[in-house]
């Protein structure tokens, strides 16, 4: 059985506006100013603890506040994870096509698992995914390949293509021995998408089914 493993933030969902809102609510509680959306978007991808490290560095705050700020962020984010978030155009149609073609699908994200599942269900797409591994599901997170390999194993798949938006996903896919398709419209730190290792790239979900079919053919 063949699997597609999707990253979540910046791949299936444009979640930066809700993450940004929760960051600013966290900063506001202690009068520590605010950050703009574009800045916060570049902080996404390594999970909440790293997001908060980057927020603390950007605002010049005391690193000793990390644990408390992480808890405050999660309180705000989990209370309101999907209001400002949108599915990228074409995601639902692509998932339907993959399902109809017999692919099994899973999510491998550094977002906490509970919030990830809540968001997938809020958009009515949770049923497409036979496995969800979040940033707190295992004792490691991406780019550790154990995450993507756990999704593949939970899906019962013998081969997998990985679809993600960042260098973290590229590294995770490579270490897990999976072909990697890069979604260029999400969040990454590299200035140039050419600098992110990739087997294919796409900017529109309407072409993803064809892109993945090509990568899967190359596997044979
Ligand atoms: O940084 C995060 O919280 C999650 O990001 P991801 O879904 O792109 O892995
Ligand atoms: Mg991502």
UniProtKB/TrEMBL annotation:
Under Pfam families, the record lists: HAD_2
CC cofactor? Mg(2+)
* Residues where Mg(2+) binds: 7, 9, 165
Q: Which sites are catalytic? A: 7 (nucleophile)
Q: Which Enzyme Commission number(s) are listed?
A: 3.1.3.18
Enzyme class per UniProt: hydrolase
Reactions accelerated catalytically: 2-phosphoglycolate + H2O = glycolate + phosphate
Q: Name one GO molecular function term.
A: phosphoglycolate phosphatase activity
A single GO cellular-component term from the record reads: cytosol
Task: State the organism named in the record.
Answer: Rhodovulum euryhalinum
- The name of this protein is Phosphoglycolate phosphatase
Pathway of action: Organic acid metabolism; glycolate biosynthesis; glycolate from 2-phosphoglycolate: step 1/1
Q: Which GO terms describe its biological process?
A: carbohydrate metabolic process; DNA repair; glycolate biosynthetic process
What InterPro entries has UniProt attached to this entry? HAD-like_hydrolase_sf, HAD-like_sf, HAD-SF_hydro_IA, HAD_2, HAD_sf, PGP-like_dom2, PGPase_prok
Which NCBIfam families does its entry note?
A: HAD-SF-IA-v1, PGP_bact
What the protein does comes down to: Specifically catalyzes the dephosphorylation of 2-phosphoglycolate. Is involved in the dissimilation of the intracellular 2-phosphoglycolate formed during the DNA repair of 3'-phosphoglycolate ends, a major class of DNA lesions induced by oxidative stress.
Concerning its family, UniProt says: Belongs to the HAD-like hydrolase superfamily. CbbY/CbbZ/Gph/YieH family.
Give the UniProt keywords, A-Z: Carbohydrate metabolism, Hydrolase, Magnesium, Metal-binding
Q: Which domain of life is it from?
A: Bacteria
